Amino acid sequence: LVITFSLFYFFSKAITEKMLVRALKGGKNTKIVTLSGKKITKMPSSLDKLPGLKTLNLQNNRISKVCSEISTLTQLTVLNLGNNLLEEIPEEMKYLTSLKKLHLFGNKICKFASGACDGLQNLILLNLNNNELAWIPQEISRLKNLKYLSINHNQLASIPKELCFLKNLFELHLNYNQLICIPEEIKFLKELQKLLLVRNNIEVLPKGICRLKNLRILDIAGNIIQTFPSGFQNLKLREFYCEGNPLFLKEPVTAVQQDDVWSLQEITSRFIMNELSEKNPFVMQAITWHPLVKNIMSQRRKCAICGKYFLTIWLECVEFVPPSKKWKISRNLQLVPLQILICSYTCFNQRGPNLFGIAQV
Ligand SMILES: [Zn+2]
User: Fold this and answer.
1) Which of 111, 116, 177, 267 has the most CB atoms in a 10 Å sphere around its CB?
2) H helix runs in the chain, sequence order
3) Residue 296 CB partners (closer than 8 Å, separation 6+)
4) How far, in Å, is the centroid of ligand 1 from the Cα of 305?
5) What separation in Å is there between the alpha carbon of 213 and the centre of ligand 1?
6) Residue 7 banded pLDDT, cuts 50, 70, 90
7) Residue 37 to residues 10, 34, 106, 217: CA-CA distances in angstroms?
8) Signal peptide position in this chain (predicted)?
9) How many angstroms is it from 301 CA to the middle of ligand 1?
10) d(CA 339, ligand 1 centre) in Å
11) In the chain, what is the straight-line distance between the N-terminal and C-terminal CA atoms, in Å?
């Protein structure tokens, strides 16, 4: 037995109650309850009489709190609480161990209650669009089966690296937030096919993005990106959108720049890093006594020309490559500017014809 209620043209408490009575008559055979757009302010506490419920649609109401009886709905697979007045992802969610789809869009959610993620081991889809989230807890990593995560139109300034441990994630929507960067750990999202980052404040994409072998759709329109990490051109994208970014353009000018004076730390670091890469046994042994130095060395970068290492002083260059013919791209994108780092002017003078220094004009 399936009882469904469609939208009525007028709403009244009497109708809501009548519908509930019908649902309750079905008892454990009632699979679906839809009470959307009924101006409900409180969730019906009689839900605990419907242990077989699979789908509960309560969208477009005025619910500000989830009732404790929801914890009895262990068979529930779809819960829609979109367009209500919730202020947090309630702790009670942890009892919904069969839940696959959770819609919480259009609320006033600014936090996850502690433990909220604990029981949602089967969750596949989480829609948090149009809320007030400024941060996401590390516990998000417990949603192990999550495939679709959408947090458009929130106030996120960052995402935790733990989000990148959701290894089944297929789609990640983070449009219209205030993200400044994306963690390098994004490389762990091996299944990711669609990444939407429209209208954020991202300046640099992490190098890890180049390792997303399954990524097919990337939208970074409306950010402040100037160059892409090298290796970006090898992504197997189908669609790539980047309008509204101040991308570097290939407009060569002649400029003279002063050679940098390296700091003592830079000179020593380069010496140590390059001795290490040549496996100098004395330096290799000495470094084990200095974990702090080892830690600093882990920040090393590699010169694109000579292959040697450097630490904090480099020449930022740009290489222009044509976008892959297989990419469906923004109309204005003719050449993809890739960030290339070079260790010195000596190397800069040996560069190829497609490599340019960046001039301040
Ligand atoms: Zn070099």
Assistant:
1) 177
2) 13-26, 264-277, 281-287, 291-297, 345-348
3) 269, 311
4) 5
5) 29
6) very low
7) 10, 9, 13, 35
8) none
9) 10
10) 15
11) 72
